[in-house]
C-alpha cells in the first residue's frame, strides 16, 4: 500500500485497521459490520472478539424481568443485556417459566435461575443456551443459590444454602452444599460445612469477589456482637468457610441494617445507605499496600454519592440504590429500587467527577440486576 | 516507546533522510533512533551524506515525522511532570490534522516503526470514526460498498442495537 498525497482512495493495511478497530467499543464495531465484506469478516471473527474482550473489560448489566406472558397466559422470565452507559438493550433472552424470579444469581457470563419444577437453569445470555443443572432432584423451597467462579481454575460453582425459620421466626442455616457446573451428568451436590455464624441469604447482602462469596451475619448475631466483625466468607475453591469473620467499615458498625454488599472493580464493597446524611457511602475492602503502611486489608471510603431521593426522613422501606458496576471511565451504574418493593426500578448512571446523574432505563417488573462480563461481539 | 540512550542523546550527528518525492530532511541521531527502520540503517552504517532514502514516505508526512521525532528525542529521558504534560499537549496539537494527512501519518509511522506516533495516529483515527455511520466510514477510508442491498439490510437488522444512536430513558421492553 503506497500512500499518496490524496490517499483516501486506498484501503488501510489490515494490521493497522485491526489496531484501530480494536480500540473502539462494541457498539460502533457491530455497526461497522455493514461497511464492507472485509470489515464484516474481521468484526465477526471470534479471534477478534477475544482480543477485543481482553482490551475492553467493560461489562454490561443483566436485568432479569418477569411478567411477560406466553400464549397460554403463563408468566415468563426474560434476561436483558443492557449497555451500561446508554441503557440500550443489547439482547433479550427468554429464560422460560421461573416461578420465583427473586432467586436469581448472576456472575461473569452466566445467570442462574430456579424454574417452576424447582430445577436450576443456567443461562448463557450470549448463546441463549439454557442447560438445566444435571442433578435434578427437587430443591426444597427454602434454599438460596449463589453463583460464582473459583479464582484459579475459573470453574463456575453454585453454593446452595438451605435455611429454616426457628421458633422465633428467624431463619437459621440448616445445611450448605456446592455444585460444580459443566460436569455433565457427573455433577453432584456436595455437602460443605455450615458458616461459623448464622448468615442472611438475601441477595443484596451477598457478593462474590475473586472466588469468595461474602455474606452478612443475621441480626440476632449482630446484636450479640455489636461492634464486632459481621461478614462471613466462603471460599469457592476450597469449599470452606474462612474461619475468621471480617469486620465491616468503621462507620457501619451500628447501622448494618442499611448496608448492602457488592463487587465493584474487583473489590468487596459495602454500600451504606445513610438517608439521614443524604448519602450513599461506598466502602472498598482493599489489599495492603505492601509497604506495611496500611496493614493487610483495610476499608477505604472511595465514594459518597448523593441520591436524588435522599434528604427525606429515612424509613426502612424507602427507595434504595444498589451499586452495580463501575465503568471504565469511572462512572458508576446504580439500580434504584422503588419504595416498598423488590420489583421494578431505574438504572442510574452516576458521574463522580461532576456529581451528575442520568436515569438511562426503567423497568417496572425487574426482579434482579447483575453484571454480565461476556463479549458482545460474540452475540449472534 | 523507543527511548534514546544517553549516548545517542549526546551525539550531535545529524541524520539525513530523503522522501519518496526527493526532498531532503535532517534530524539529530537521537530523533532518527525513534524510528526502528532508521535505527537499523544507522546501526548498519547505511546513513551517509546522501541521506537514507524512504521510498514510500512523501515529503509532507515526512516533515511531520521529523518534527515529531525531534521533539520526542529531545525530551525522552528523565521527564518532569511539566515536561510530560507539555509533550502530551504537543502530541494533541500535532495530531490535529485532516484525514488525508492522518492516513499518511498512520501508514508512514507504521512503515518507519515510530511506535509512539503510530499509537497516537491509531487512537486519533479510532476517535474520529467512533461515532460514524458505515456510509461515513466508507467515505473516510475510500471503501466501496460490496454488499447487496438485501445483505446490508440483513446486517443492519442483526446488529440493530448498534444503530440506535440515542434513546431517551424508557422501559426496557
Explained architecture:
- The complex is a heterodimer of chains A (380) and B (173).
- Chain A starts with 13 loop residues before the first helix and ends in an 8-residue tail after the last strand.
- Chain A folds into 2 domains: 13-56, no CATH class; 59-314 and 364-372, Neuraminidase, CATH 2.120.10.
- The radius of gyration of chain A is 22 Å and the shape is globular.
- Chain A has helices at 14-22, 26-31, 37-43, 46-55, 219-224; strands at residues 60-69, 75-82, 89-96, 105-107, 110-114, 120-123, 143-149, 156-165, 171-180, 190-192, 199-200, 206-209, 212-217, 231-235, 240-241, 259-264, 267-274, 279-286, 298-305, 320-326, 332-337, 346-350, 357-362, 366-372.
- In chain A, 10% of the residues lie in helices and 39% in strands.
- By secondary structure, chain A is mostly beta strands.
- By secondary structure, chain B is mostly helical.
- Chain B has one domain (6-129): 2-Layer Sandwich (Potassium Channel Kv1.1, Chain A).
- Chain B has helices at 6-10, 29-32, 36-43, 59-74, 81-94, 99-112, 115-129, 134-141, 149-158, 160-163; strands at residues 14-18, 24-28, 52-53, 170-171.
- Chain B has a 3-stranded mixed beta sheet with strand order 2-1-3.
- Residues 1-10 of chain B have low confidence and may be disordered.
- At the A-B interface, helix 1, helix 2, helix 3, strand 1 and strand 2 of A face helix 6, helix 7, helix 8, helix 9 and helix 10 of B.
Amino acid at each position: 500500500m503506497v500512500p499518496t498525497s490524496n490517499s483516501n482512495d486506498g484501503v488501510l493495511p489490515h494490521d493497522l485497521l485491526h489496531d484501530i478497530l480494536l480500540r473502539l467499543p462494541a457498539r460502533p464495531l457491530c455497526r461497522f459490520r455493514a461497511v464492507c465484506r472485509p470489515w464484516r469478516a474481521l468484526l465477526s471473527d471470534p479471534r477478534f472478539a477475544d482480543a477485543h474482550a481482553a482490551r475492553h473489560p467493560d461489562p454490561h448489566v443483566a436485568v432479569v424481568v418477569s411478567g411477560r406472558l406466553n400464549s397460554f397466559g403463563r408468566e415468563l422470565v426474560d434476561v436483558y443485556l443492557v449497555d451500561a452507559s446508554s441503557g440500550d438493550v443489547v439482547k433479550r433472552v427468554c429464560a422460560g417459566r421461573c416461578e420465583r424470579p427473586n432467586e436469581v444469581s448472576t456472575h461473569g457470563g452466566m445467570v442462574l435461575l430456579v424454574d417452576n419444577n424447582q430445577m436450576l437453569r443456567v443461562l448463557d445470555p450470549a448463546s441463549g443456551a439454557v442447560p438445566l443443572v444435571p442433578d435434578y432432584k427437587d430443591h426444597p423451597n427454602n434454599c438460596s443459590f449463589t453463583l460464582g467462579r473459583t479464582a484459579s481454575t475459573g470453574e463456575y460453582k453454585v453454593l446452595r444454602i438451605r435455611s429454616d425459620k426457628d421458633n422465633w421466626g428467624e431463619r437459621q442455616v440448616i445445611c450448605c452444599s456446592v455444585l460444580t457446573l459443566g460436569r455433565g451428568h457427573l455433577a453432584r451436590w456436595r455437602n460443605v460445612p455450615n458458616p461459623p455464624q448464622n448468615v442472611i441469604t438475601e441477595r443484596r447482602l451477598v457478593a462474590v469477589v475473586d472466588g469468595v462469596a461474602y455474606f452478612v451475619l443475621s441480626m440476632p448475631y449482630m446484636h450479640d456482637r455489636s461492634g464486632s466483625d459481621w461478614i462471613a466468607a466462603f471460599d469457592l475453591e476450597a469449599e470452606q468457610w474462612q474461619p475468621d469473620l471480617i469486620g465491616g467499615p468503621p462507620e457501619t458498625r451500628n447501622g448494618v441494617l442499611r448496608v448492602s454488599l457488592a463487587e465493584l472493580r474487583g473489590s468487596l464493597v459495602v454500600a451504606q445507605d445513610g438517608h439521614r446524611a443524604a448519602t450513599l457511602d461506598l466502602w472498598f475492602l482493599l489489599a495492603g499496600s505492601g509497604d506495611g503502611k496500611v496493614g493487610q486489608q483495610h476499608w477505604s471510603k472511595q465514594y459518597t454519592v448523593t441520591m436524588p431521593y435522599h434528604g427525606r426522613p429515612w424509613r426502612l422501606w424507602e427507595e434504595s440504590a444498589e451499586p452495580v458496576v463501575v465503568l471504565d471511565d469511572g462512572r458508576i451504574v446504580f439500580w434504584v429500587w422503588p419504595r416498598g418493593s423488590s420489583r421494578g426500578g431505574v438504572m442510574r448512571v452516576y458521574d463522580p467527577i461532576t456529581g451528575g446523574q442520568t436515569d438511562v432505563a426503567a423497568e417496572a417488573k425487574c426482579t434482579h440486576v447483575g453484571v454480565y462480563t461476556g463479549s458482545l461481539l460474540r452475540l449472534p | 516507546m523507543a527511548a534514546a540512550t544517553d549516548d545517542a542523546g549526546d551525539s550531535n550527528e545529524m541524520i539525513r533522510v530523503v522522501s519518496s518525492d526527493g526532498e531532503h530532511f535532517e534530524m539529530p541521531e537521537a530523533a532518527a533512533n525513534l524510528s526502528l527502520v532508521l535505527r537499523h540503517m544507522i546501526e548498519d552504517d547505511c546513513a551517509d551524506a546522501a541521506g537514507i532514502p524512504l521510498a514510500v514516505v512523501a515529503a509532507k508526512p515526512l516533515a511531520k515525522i521529523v518534527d515529531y521525532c525531534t521533539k520526542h528525542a529531545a525530551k525522552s529521558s528523565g521527564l518532569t511532570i511539566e515536561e510530560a504534560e507539555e509533550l502530551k499537549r504537543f502530541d494533541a496539537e500535532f495530531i490535529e490534522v485532516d484525514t488525508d494527512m492522518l492516513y499518511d501519518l498512520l501508514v508512514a509511522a507504521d512503515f518507519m516503526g515510530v511506535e509512539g506516533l503510530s499509537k497516537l495516529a491509531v487512537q486519533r483515527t479510532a476517535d474520529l470514526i467512533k461515532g460514524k455511520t458505515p456510509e461515513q466510514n466508507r467515505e473516510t477510508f475510500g471503501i466501496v460498498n460490496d454488499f447487496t442491498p438485501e445483505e446490508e439490510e440483513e446486517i443492519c437488522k442483526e446488529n440493530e442495537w448498534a444503530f440506535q444512536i440515542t434513546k431517551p430513558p424508557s422501559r426496557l421492553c
